[in-house]
Structure formats: structure tokens, C-alpha cells
Amino acid sequence: MFQAPAKQTATDTISTLSGRLASATLLEDRRAAILGLRSFAKDYPASVASGALRDLIAALTKDAEDVDTLKVVLETLLALFHPNEQSPEASDEIALWLADEFTQREDNINILLGLLETDDFYSRQNSLLLLRAIHDARPERTQECILTGIGKVVATLDDPRDAIRTEALPLLNDLSRSSTELQKLIVFENAFDRIFNLIQADGSLTQGTIVVQDSLSLLANLVRFNTSNQTNFRELGHVAKLAALLPGGQKQKKARSSLEEDDWVSPQADKNLWGLLAILRMFLVRGSISTLPNQNAFVKHGILQQVVNMAFDPASPIPIKIESLNVCADMIRGNARLQQGFAQLQVRPIVEPVTNGATTPNEPAIAYIIDALLNLVLTPAANDMFDVRFAACECIKAYIFNHFQIKTHFLQRAIDGLAGDETANALTTLLTGPQGSQVIDPYRIWFAAVLVFHLIFDDREAKKKLMGVVEGDSERGEEVVTCIQTLTANLITSLQLDEDERITIAYLMLLSTWLFEDAAAVNDFLGEASSLQSLVQAIQRPGNDRTVVRGLCAALLGIIYEFSTKDSPVPRRDLQPLLTTKLGREKYLNAIAELRHHPDVRDFEVTPQTGASGGLLPSVFFDETFTDFLKDNFSRLSRAIDRDPVKEILQSDDGIDRDVVDSLRGQIDEKQQAIEQLQAEKLTLEQRVNQEQAERRKAEDSAQQQLHNIKRINEELHRNHENDTRKAEREHKQALLELENKYNLQINALNNKMQQATKESAVAVANTKREYEEKLRQENRSRGEIEQRLNASDRARQDADRAHQQVLESNRALEQKHRDEIAAIILEKDALETHIQESGARIQKLQNEKSALQSTIEKSTAEARDLHSTIAALKSEVQDLKTKVQDQTWKVKDAEEKLRKAETAVKEKEEARAAAQTELDDLFVMLGDLEEKRARDKKRLKELGEEVSEAEDEDDEDEDDE
């Protein structure tokens, strides 16, 4: 009997297929092996990956030309990244392992990027899916590997097939979300134009599908906190394209088959519009260097008006209204020009104005935007409108942000509106209190307090102006109640009636910041001493739900004590026992600590300030600026209770003794008299300064004249020196010529003398010969006599021979003498030529000295120019001195500082005048040095044999006389 073959397990089959893939040489065999592995990839990812992963990656290159095989390989790799959840081998570590295999070798990523350049649909789509899966597992490594090939990914956005674009957008979103470098590279690949083309092709915001949403997400990733991309976006003209996408912009709709389809609105429309508004806010981040140019560009292209229209369009959903108002706030905040122009916009109010409880339908439904915003914020509304009102409040805060003129006008208008019947008036709302509203709306009071808080925060003039608001006429016998006292009364009422804590917190926020570092406001508050007792009772009241109110009441008491004085209605010496005895130091510090650690304060930055669902009241209690104020001053408030009541805080952190303050006040009159005297001295000093200016101008003119004389003397000296040099050269040449002629004559004379001597020697020899011949003839005639006298003749002949020898020696001596004289003449000629060379060297030396002298003169001229610059600088210092004297007079803040600054001004003026006089003395000394140097130069020229004209000497004498 035949035995049945052993059943093969999945692991064995995978191993067999992996081996076949590795060893197969035919394309069909490899494709069959890959198809088999694909069937196991979902259920056995670990086995397939461990046995065939590298061979599968290698097949992407080996079989790249066969699209069918390539499709199967990519599908197998994708299946390994996304196995079945029920698979026994399913694990998150498999994806990490697979991603490491691709990212640790950049060539593997480049293979996938190369497939994006093919035209095959499945190769492109599966490569994008695979790159996204790798990025999900190893995002940082994938971003590093894909840097050089990001252009290939961006190019897929131009693919005409929707499926490719749909897969490319999420991949680009993932890649650009956290990598600034990739964001810049993507923008460099013309991504902005491609994004807007995709949005337009998909039907823009109203008819667009998920493609528009992904495109907006990519746009947001590219511009979020990236100033360079924002600048690129702005300068390449893409702001106009943003404006075209918004409602009211010029845009083209996607082609549809019928008019009904043209009117069709995508379910994604509101989400798309909200996303675009969120992108606008990314260009307007507070504190960014690109915010200001972005604001100007948006307003230039009409985006502000479009957003305002959306915010007040009755058809706009509430989320769109909220985001539109937030965009408006960001677009004008900190831009003075836009803040001023914002108030001129007109809109249709969201909430119709109400007067005496009745609407006014007959009035035009158009209002200025600030009035519409105030009406929206301060009119009672349902809780689901809180986010809209909060955004409108932010818009008003942005309108008055860091703009003194607008804040002053806004506050003055609110003060003037108290006499009228304006319901949309923050001051009226606060002073009337919650009982003045028919509908109990705690946020009406809260918004009003926030607006007034921002109007007076860190603005002493605004606080002073608001303190002038009173109720009642003392001349008619009515009780005069100040604004602070009215607000305090409303606060105490809310504490006693246990009203909504948002109302109490609103009043406490406003009063705490108003009284901070304002002794006059503290004294106004202490005019009603009973209010202190109500605050102490609120702190002592038990209950975990009153933590914030207790803490704020303690903070307000601490501020009152910190900035009170001994002249306050309730002196500091009486306030301290109230805190330490009646309330108790520990309870005070505990209330401050509980407020500091309360989640609404501690976690304010990370807690969204939005409305609650289900129609409940939102959990919004504080303004952002107020929480910053609290956190900056918690430590100071904690230390306030331990401060000595004798020490007072006068707008600073340094405590001073009150007796010292009184003594200083007693000295004010004396200081004032001293200041008046100093002012008189100032006038005298101004006259002296004017006189010194005139003298300085005179000295400047004199220096200018001397500079002119120096220049003229320099020119004359230069000209005379050139003339003298030419004259010396001519004389030298003449002397040389004469010397040459003289020596030539002497040489000719000596030559003649030598010739004469030679002739005389020849004549003497001829005469001697004739005489000898004559005697010889005589001897021949008288031979006998000669023979007789032979001995005598021999002697005579010997004598004649000796005489002839003497004559010959004399001739030789004469010739030697002539030769010696000729040698002497030649030596003398050589000496003369040496003298001529030395004279030439001397002339060259004189010329060099002439150049050095000319450089010295030029340096003297430069020093004279520097001297002129010094005079101009001194003149400017005199003008600065005059300005400082005036500034020191008008910038005096108090009596002691006025005296000190006046004395300092006098001392500085005297020092400056002495410095100016010293500069003038140095100027004259410098001019004297120049004259001495010029005299030395002339003396040096004379020593060198150069002549100095008498005119220059006379000029020197004239200058000395001057």
C-alpha cells in the first residue's frame, strides 16, 4: 500500500517559495514564487519577511521592466506592512523591521522614488502607499532618505489620475508635518501652484471633496511657523489665489454636466472653508516677523473685507463666524494703520440693537463694525453663542491693542455714553450690574469687565480718566459715588447674593488690575471701609467651590495693603491688623496658594477657552492677560502681608520711610527756588554758549585763513623750490662745461709743450752730430796732427762720447718728465670725472630731499584738514550741549531729581566749555607746530644749498606778527 505524503506546513511552503525566488532565473518562475508569497503575506508576515524580504526588494530592480511582476512585488510588501489582525505573527515590530530594511539603505528608498517616474498606474500608486507605510514606522529616517527625491513625490500631484493624487497628498502631508527642510524643498518644487490647481480642479471649497481638504492640510503644513515659505507665498502672488477661494472672490467652478450640479454644495464645504480660515491665521501669528507684511498683503487683496462679510453673514454657520472673527482679530492686531481703518467698516449686525427692551426694525440694518461687535458681545445671548461672543471680544481687544489714541477714544466714548441710553456700553453694563439685565447672563458682565480691563491695563492716564467718572451732584446735595466705589458695591452684592462666580471674578479682575500700583485708586476704594470686611468674610467662607473667589479676594486685599499709605482713609497701620489678626496670615497665604495652583489658573495656557456642549455655561473664567498678571505677581502678593506698615510703596518695589517722604516734601519749596535760580543761570549759560559759538566761529574763520596761508605758502615754496632746483641744475651744467673747457685747454697746452720739447731734443742731437762730423773732417785733414795728438784726440773723443751720452740721458729724462705730466693730467681728468659723478649724486640726493619735503608739506595740509574737522565736531558738541541743557530742564520729574539734573547740566556745560577751550588751545598749538616745522624745512633747504625767496621770509614775518 502506498503511504500518503506528509502534509506540508505554511512555514515550509514559505521557505520553499523564498528559495525559489532567490534561485530562479526565469521571470515566470520568480513571478510564480512572488504570487505564492503574496498569498501568505497577510497571515504570516514574519515568516515571509524573514525569508524573502531582501529578494522582494531586489526584484523591484531586477524585474522593473515587467509591470505585472512589479505590481505583485509591491502588493506583497504592502501586505507585510498591513497584516491581518488575527494573524498569529502580527506585531508592530514587523513594520519597524521592514522600515529599517528600507531606510538603512538609501538605495532601497531611491528604488521606490524611481518607480514614481514610471507611467504605470499600479507602480505609482503602490510606491506611494509603501513610502507612506515606511514613513509611519520610521518617520525621521524616511525624511532623511527622501530629501533628494522629494521632487519626484511632488511631481505626482500633476498626475491626471485622481487615485494617484489622492495617495500623494497624504504622503506629502506626513513628510512636511515636522520637517522644516522638507517644507522648503517642497515649496521649491512649485508646490503652491500645484495645490491651488488641485483645489480648483476639484471644485474649490464649496464643491471640493477630500482632495481639497488634503490640499489645505498640505498648505497648512508648508506655511505653519515657516517664515521663509510665507515670504515665498506672499512674494509669488499666491495671496490673490487665497482671496479667490474665499466667498466673494473671483473663482472658476468645476465643470459640471448641468446647472443643478453647478449649485451642488459638498458636505465638506464648511470644513474646507474653516480650514482655509485656519490657514489664514497661520500667517498672522503674534510676534512673528512676517506677520506685519502678511497683514498688509491680506488687506491689500481684500481678504479682511471678505472675512468680515463671512463673520456677519446670517447664512454662515457658527464655526465659520467664530473663525472669521478670530482671523479679523489677528489681521489687525498690532498694525496701527489697519486698526484705524478697521473701525470704518460697515456690516449687518448679528444681533439687532435693542433700546429700552425693544428692537428698532425701522432703522437701517447697517452699522459700523465696532458697534456691531459691542452689540454682539454685550447683548444677552444663549450659551451656544458664547464662542461667537468670545471671538468678537478678541476682535475688539485686537482693535485697541497697543494703540493709545484708539484706547483713549474708545474709553472717552464709553464715558460719554453713560449719560445716554446705550445698552452696548461696557461701562454702563458694569456700573448697572447684573440686576439691570432682564436675562441673567453672567458673561455680559464678564465681557464688559474684560474690555474695560484692557482699556486701563498699564495705562495710568486711562485709570485717571476713569476715576473722574462719578454719580451724583454734590451741589444738589446728592451723594457723590465714584466709579471704583460703584464697582466695589456691585462686587460686594454679588458676594452677598451668591451670584454666579463669573460675575464676581469679572469685578475682581477689573479692580485688582486697576488698584495695582495706583495709590489714588486704593484711597478711592478705601473711602468705603466696609468693603474690606466683606472681602475678609468672603475669604473666610468655607467651600471647595469658592477657591477662585477666595483667592482673588485675598489678592485684592494684598494689593490694597501693598499700595496704601499712611494718608489713606484706612491707614496702613490699621490695615495690617485686619490682614494678620482678623483674617490671619496663614489663611491669607493659603488662599493665594490655592488660587495659584487652581487648574483654571495653572493650566490656563493649555486649556481651550471654548463654550460647553449641551447648552451649559462654559468653563471660561479668566482673561489671558489677567492670568499673566497674576502669575507675575503671586510672589509679591505673598510677601505683601509681611511688609512693615511704616514702609510704603510709591510706584516701585522699594519701600521707604514715610517720615523721609514728609521731610522731602518740606524741601520741595527750597528745591523749586533752586530750580528757578538754575533756570536763570541757564539763560546766562545760554548767552555764554552763544558768545562761545561766536568766538568759535571767529576762531574757525581764523583757522580757515591760516589754512589758506599755509596752502599758499606751500604752493609758493613748491614753486620756488622747483625754480631753485632748475637754476642750480643750469649753474651746475655751466660750471661743468667751463671746467671741461678749462681742462681741455690745459691738455692741449701740455701736448704742445711735449711736442716742442721733442723738437728741441732732435735739434740738439743734430747740432752735436754736425759738430762731431766737423771735427772728424778736421781730423781727417789734419791726420797727422791727429795722429800726433792721438792721445789727445782719444781723450777728446771720449769726452765727446760722454757728452753725447749725457745728451741722450737728458733727452730720455725729458721724455720721462713729459710722460709723468701726461699721467698727472689723466689722473686729474679722472678726479674731475669723479667730482662730476659726486655732483650728480648730490643733485639726486637734493631731489629726494625735495620729495620728502613735499610729502611733509602734504601731511601738514592733511593735518590742517583734520583740524578743520575737529572744529566742526566742536561746533556740533556746542549745539548738543545746548540741547542737553534744555532737555535737563524739561525732564525733571520731582524736586530732588530736578536739582540734581540742573547741577549736572551746569557741571557738564562747564566741562564742555573747558573742553572746547582746550580744543581751541590745542588748535593754536598745532598751528604753531606747523609754522615751526615749516621754518625747519626752510632752514634745511638753506643748509642743502637751496635758496629761499625773500617773499617767503616776509610772509613768515607777517604771520609771526599776526
TrEMBL record:
Compositional bias per record (Acidic residues), positions renumbered to this chain? 946-962
Q: What is its main location?
A: Golgi
Domain Vesicle tethering protein Uso1/P115-like head: start-end pairs: 335-641
Q: Which GO terms describe its cellular component?
A: endoplasmic reticulum; ER to Golgi transport vesicle membrane; Golgi membrane; Golgi stack
Q: Where does the record place it?
A: Golgi apparatus
Where does the source fall among the domains of life?
Eukaryota
Q: Where is the composition biased (Basic and acidic residues)?
A: 712-731, 775-804, 935-945
Q: What is this protein called?
A: Intracellular protein transport protein-like protein
What is the originating organism of this protein?
Bimuria novae-zelandiae CBS 107.79
